[in-house]
Each structure stands twice: as structure tokens, then as C-alpha cells.
Amino acid sequence: MEILTGENNKTLRQKSLPVKHINAEVRSLIEQMKEVIRQNNGVGLAAIQIGEPTRIIICEIDDKFYTFINPEIIKFFPETSVIEEGCLSLPNIYGEVERPKKITLKAINFDGKKVKMKAFGLLARVIQHELDHLDGVLFIDKAKKITKQTRKTAAL
Ligand code: NI
Fold first, then answer.
1. Domain containing 75 — which CATH number?
2. Which one of 56, 58, 95, 125 is most buried, counting C-beta atoms within 10 A?
3. How many structural domains are present in the chain?
4. Is the pTM of this model over 0.70?
């Protein structure tokens, strides 16, 4: 499975649509996303990055795996931080992005249950980055200092 790349990629720039029914097709898409994130050493992935314009994001942090279907951030806490981000869809590009440190998220999980949770630290950062993908927004649209380099930390 290939990851779409490029800041001008038309698919990456489109808005993803909500999931209506959590069926076998949706679950198989999530399994594919899981494989892609592991093969590429990522910490987060949105379905659109593998060409599916569907509102699903996954995150894997410290061996903990999260699936969020139709995610919505219902609260941004006021305190922000500036952290360098990368993205599997923008290889070798990094940029410092300011985002709220803490959020409240509403979503549906892999089992089809509604979840509401507070997230902070890396998880809050990854969720915000992935949610932007669902609206066709890439981190470089928000980054202040962009650098090109081959290295390094896991990409979102
Ligand atoms: Ni990304």
C-alpha cells in the first residue's frame, strides 16, 4: 500500500467524508492503515494518505494503538506549544507548528462505540495533525519554520 505524497497532491487536498456504517469494509481499511503505519514507522495516519477520503485516523504511541472514526475536537485548551512536525506524506520536510497542548476529542472507536476523551502531549499533537489531513490541510500550511532534511523522528 502506497502513501500519497506531495503538498499539491489533489487527493491529499480534498476533504474526507464521514463514515456512515462501521462495517467489514471500514474495519479492513483500518487494518490496512495499521500495516502502513507500522511499515513506515509512523505515529499517526489518516485514511486519505492511502487514498481513501474517509474520516478515519489512527495513532500509535508507546505501543498503544488508537482508532478514531469521525473524530471531532470539541474543545481546544488555551495553552499552546511549538513542536517540530513531520508527515509521511511530506518526506524529509519538517516544520515548527504551534498547536494547543490539550484537547477534548469526540469520536467512534474500532468497536463502533462513541468515545469522548481528553488528550495531551504527543497524542493531542498527533490527533490535531491527523484531523487536519481530513480537511485537506497539511502541517506546512501552518508551520512557521520549515526545514528540509533526511533523518529522523517518526512522522505523523
Ligand atoms: Ni501527516
1. 3.90.45.10
2. 56
3. 1
4. yes
